[in-house]
Amino acid sequence: PERTDALDILRWFDGRMAVELRLWDALEQDLLSPFHYYGIHDGTDLRGVTWRRGRGYDVTELTNVYTADDVWVGKVLAAVQEKVSDPRRMRALGFGVSIAHCEFLADRFNRAGIAARAVSANTAPGERDAALRALAAGDVQVLFSVDLFNEGIDVPNVDVVLMLRPTESATVFLQQLGRGL
Question: What is the mean pLDDT of residues 79-105?
Fold first, then answer.
């Protein structure tokens, strides 16, 4: 079948949107899961990381900051232990800076006894599907990815979202947050 996009549909309605529902309105109307959002300051100094307007932080430099040692990931693990009642029962998506960062996170979470996998665009589709099934079954507690699960996917078992990367894009932030709603 032919794919229809929003612009094709809008032409049938004289280019007007029939209905629009914003995230905060949907939450107020109890159409989405209620949630608790914790913004935890980790003290990471990013002033030495190159930043360019329109492109954001240099991914390699940012990855190096977050993977240089275990101090930062130790803070992440401590926050998970503090905020999540039973981390070994959570179903989480974690959003990282790069594939290397996500692999680092998965390794450190596994070492801490929290089953995790890193999946990326480089991961074979069958492996990605298996990882999602393992998350749903509770065999894995966290899937770490970069720009893989931002949009276009519904993972209803997710009950924790770990935003482990800076973003200057409100759209990307809301898309990633939405994976947990």
Answer: 93
Residue whose C-alpha is closest to residue 116's, from 79, 83, 88: 88
Rounded CA-CA distance 41/173 in Å is 17
> Which positions ≥6 away from 46 have C-beta within 8 Å?
57, 62, 65, 166
Q: Is the pLDDT of residue 76 over 90?
A: yes
Element (H, E) at 7: helix 6-11
Q: Residues 94, 105: contact at Cβ < 8 Å?
A: yes
Mean pLDDT of the chain: 81
Q: Once rounded to an integer, what is the mean pLDDT over residues 85-98?
A: 92
Measured distance CA(147)–CA(152) in Å, rounded: 11
Q: Where are the beta strands (DSSP E) in 7-165?
A: 51-52, 56-57, 92-95, 116-118, 142-145, 160-163
Distance CA 167, CA 164 (A): 10
- The answer to whether residues 155 and 135 touch, using CB atoms and an 8 Å cutoff, is yes
From 146, 141, 147, 163, select the one nearest 42 (Cα to Cα): 163
130 has pLDDT over 90: yes
